[in-house]
Amino acid sequence: MKGTSIGEFEELVLLSVGILYDDAYGLAILDEIEKKTGRSVMISSVHKTLVRLEDKGFVKSRMGGKTNVRGGRDKRLYTLTPAGVSVLREMKEVRNLMWKEIPRVVLEG
Amino acid sequence: MKEKTSPPRWMITFFQWFCNEHLADAVLGDLLTLYDRRVKVRGKLKADLLFFFNVIQFIQPFAIRRQRSSNTANSLDMIRSYFKIAWRSMLLQRMYSAIKVGGFAIGIATCIVITLYVRHELSYDTHYQDRANLYRIYNEETGPEGGTWISTPPMISSILKESYPEVAAAARLIVQDWNNAGDNLFRRDDQIESTFEEGFAYADNDLLTILEIPMVYGNRSLALKNPKTIVISKSKADKYFPGVDPTGKTIVLNDDLEQTFTIGGVMADFRSTSHLQVDFFITLSGVEFWEGEQTSWCCWNYANYIKLRPGTDPEELESKFVSVKESYLEYLSKQKNQNLEFVREHYALRLQPIDEIHLFSGNMHDNVPHGDIRYTWMFGGVAVVILLLACINFVNLSTARSANRAKEVGLRKVVGSHRSMLIRQFLSESILYSIISFGLAVGMVTLFMPYFRNLAGKNIEVPWTSLWFVSTLWLCAILLGIIAGLYPSLYLSRFKPIDVLKGRVAVGFRNSNLRSAMVVFQFTTSIVLIIGTIIIYQQMQFILTTKVGYEKDQVLMLQGINTLNERQKTFKEELMQLSDVQNVTITHYLPVDGTKRDQNEFWRDGKSTEERGFGAQVWYVDEDYIETMGMKLVAGRFFKDDIASDSSSIIVNQTMARTLGFTNPIGEKIMTWRTWNIIGVIEDFHFSDMKGKIGPLCLVRGGYGDIAAVKLKNDQMQSAIASVTSVWNKFLPNQPMRYSFLDEHFERMHDDVKRTGNILASFTVFAIIVACLGLFALSAFMIEQRNKEISIRIVLGATIRNILTMLTGNFLKLVVISFFLATPIAWYVMNRWLEDYEYKIEIGWNVFVIAGLSSIVIALLTVSYQSVRAALANPTSGLRSQ
User: Fold this and answer.
1) Which pLDDT tens digit goes with each residue over B400-428?
2) Could A75 and B4 be called an inter-chain contact, meaning their C-beta atoms sit closer than 8 Å?
3) Which of B225, B698, B731, B774 has an alpha carbon within 20 to 30 A of B823's alpha carbon?
């Protein structure tokens, strides 16, 4: 089952995967979201969302190499798929479109 | 590197256990990194807690371990394949499969039958809507001679109704053989011929409402309202008044035209699960059996059923019954009865819930047949044990055969089978076995149910058509399959492919401790059952052959001769003249159940206000009684026909003489409501079952009765009955002769022992069959395993004897161990059983020897068939195979 739309948190996760590019794994994504939005996020919801996004085909994953930084611990690295990129782009366009239609009065008032 | 702090190991293990492979390592990495950060900031304890909290957060569907290849279509195919493989391996090992299935089926069939029996017993008197508020009154006397009985004086029920607001309704009942209660000759007033009918009882009108008896015709609240009314059951109405409403019709009892009865209604037949089984209720309205009877505390003949108002606490009510006791004490003190203090101390009126009457009445004297909760559970327990034996066979055989399946398991694992899949495979195999066994068991139940009905004396139906029964059977089949298959499947699936494929498959056989324990359990059970059965049969033999104090053989009982009235004497004289007849006596009272009993209170003459009296049976007999019954007079004389003064003579039994305390009782006087002269003492004889001691009993001069006991000269029953019949027909042409034999009545009195014995005997047979099937298959398997060894031994010169000893010795050891385990258990249980009997056998050592030897012989026979075959086989065939 491929979902064509994504929720707000899913979008945040997807964007973070994009930002982190080659080093997007669970904890890094969590840090990224916390840094950018300032809200506190549960590690389990990050992983849950990643699993769902992978099921929907927006990200793909591979086991990453062990790094000394993490004390030789495993990590699963995520990257955007073309479908993931296009869904992000779509979201952004929809937003821009809708932004433009908001009368100036509303934004300034 | 420096030592790193890390969360408790078990948390990590737990996480790895439940989390799926896709996420486990990655998430753990994340969590540990988080942990490291937290340790620095907040310390170990908080970090540990937070780590645990994180772990808990992951218990969500997305992270939890999933079965691989959870494709539904595929797993359906797999299940189909499991069943196919199971079916094939079953056909491949025909003998073992037959034994597995057969033994299992026997166990299941026994269990089904007994479950139905237990259910039937437990369902007694549970059908009343208001059952929680229905009670029967009973009397309790504590103390060494104490006991419980239900009969009370006549006015108890009205006292209860009037003085206790908690009592919503109360009614009386008389079921014992007394006046017209019990059995009678019955006819419509427009017909001449009478028919013998049983199941008569006296009852108050309200009893119909209290017991919620459904009416076919007539109004329940009025049917017994008027004096001289009678309510008959549906089946009797159909018999005498087919197709019509008999309400208002007149019927005659015992040809007594002065006292006819009007039918007040027709009630539905009593359920088979009711403790009462009555076909005719005669009203108690307007009944007074003698002058002043209804208001006197003297005579206790009435049972009482009451209905309490909802919410009444029965125990609280019982404690209020003290005021009833007060009026009884008042009566006793007016009589200057010396029992007063004893009664005050030891007597109480109590309540028994109606649904406890059947199973929990113990030794209650109530003239109603009972079950016994102990036997109910005992039979249930034995059935479960037999089922367990069958399950053990199943487990035993499955694990024993493991060597044969080991290669399959190894190969399956090599090709990628998971352990869980193998477990599923073996479980579905055992479920298949279980379902087949259930099918077979259902067949057995249908086949044996009539036999069991006979054995238990109960009309138990198998509810084949009810949904709950069928669905329970299916559920049990699957459940039992899982239970029985659990150990074998865990065991078989544990094999390591590398061991198996290298040929190290004997793992299954070497570890045989568990298997030996199971065989021991099976044989212990069987031996306990064998011993129990032998002892019950011995007790039965003891009862049937012990000297009862009278001669019960060749005594014909002609019943229903009360209709002869004053012609009884001439009837008796004519019978005496027959060449086959040795003696005749006419009486109501015989030392077997189903004849009349009368209890009176006795004192030494003139002492009724000074000494405590005691209860004794008073039997009215004629001058030929002890001659006919073959009883022995130990002192004095018996009644003589020509002595007019015998009207106040009395003959006591030895127990009564002892109770009275007379060294020479002849010539002494004793009293009840009148004075008696003791003219003789007879030897004690048993007049009730062997459970109680022989009580005091005395004989007084009667001469009228409804039974003529005819002692025959020889055992030519046919000709004797023919000649007696011809005399009967001359006197009573309109009444078919009803006769039976005294010894039959005696045996019937002890039916319960016989029944228990027979049921236990069949259990024993089943248990032994199951145990032997298991042993047979095990020995066959063991010999198969050692085939090569045996062949080599034979080649090297072992004799048949050597081989046999070697093969059977092992199993015999197990049976001997079982014997030593079984002996104390059986001894204890059977001693408890015998405690019920005042007159009983001693458990002798020979019982144990017989049981031990027979089980050894049975085991030996079972094992030796295979062993002999192995020992006689041509060794080359065993060696050539590989």
Assistant:
1) 777 677 788 888 888 888 888 888 888 88
2) no
3) B774
A71 φ, ψ to 5°? Answer: 65, 35
B150, B366 in Cβ contact below 8 A?
Answer: yes
Judge whether B57 is closer than 8 Å to chain A, CB to CB. yes
CB count in 10 Å sphere of residue B571: 20
End-to-end CA distance of chain B: 61
* Count of all residues that appear for chain B in the document: 882
Distance CA B745, CA B59 (A): 74
pLDDT class of B34 with cuts at 50, 70, 90: confident
Identify the band that residue A66 occupies on the pLDDT scale cut at 50, 70 and 90.
Answer: low
Judging contacts by C-beta atoms under 8 Å, the chain B residues touching residue A73 are 28-29, 32-33
Closest partner CB to B60 (pick from A27, A43, A48): A48
Here the ipTM equals 0.86
* Cβ–Cβ gap B31/A43 under 8 Å: yes
In angstroms, what CA-CA distances link B572 with B568, B691, B732? 6, 35, 13
Residues of A with Cβ-Cβ distance to B23 under 8 angstroms: 47, 51, 76
| Distance separating alpha carbons of residues B806 and B278, to the nearest angstrom | 66
Cα separation, B700 vs B602, in Å, equals 13
Inter-chain contacts counted by CB atoms under 8 A, chains A and B: 60
Query: B575 near B727, Cβ under 8 Å?
Result: yes
Distance, in Å, from the CA atom of B554 to the CA atom of B709, rounded to the nearest integer, reads 10
pLDDT at res. B808:
85
Nearest residue of A to residue B1, measured between CA atoms = A71
Contact B32/A71, CB-based, under 8 Å? yes
Between CA B623 and CA B585 the distance in angstroms is: 8
Token readout for B9 is 């190991």
Q: Are the beta carbons of B147 and B362 closer than 8 angstroms?
A: no
Please indicate whether, in this complex, the C-beta atoms of B23 and A47 are within 8 angstroms of each other: yes
| All residues at 6 or more sequence positions from A57 whose CB lies less than 8 Å from its CB, including other chains | A2, A81, A83, A84
Stated as kind and residue range, the H or E segment containing B756 is: helix B751-785
Per-residue pLDDT reduced to its tens digit, B437-479? 999 999 999 998 988 888 888 888 888 888 888 999 999 999 9
The 3-class SS string of B273-311 reads CCCCCCCEEEECCCCCCCCCHHHCCCCCCEEEEEEECCC
Tell me B485's DSSP state. H
Q: Using CB atoms, pick whichever of B4, B29, B60 lies closest to residue A44.
A: B60
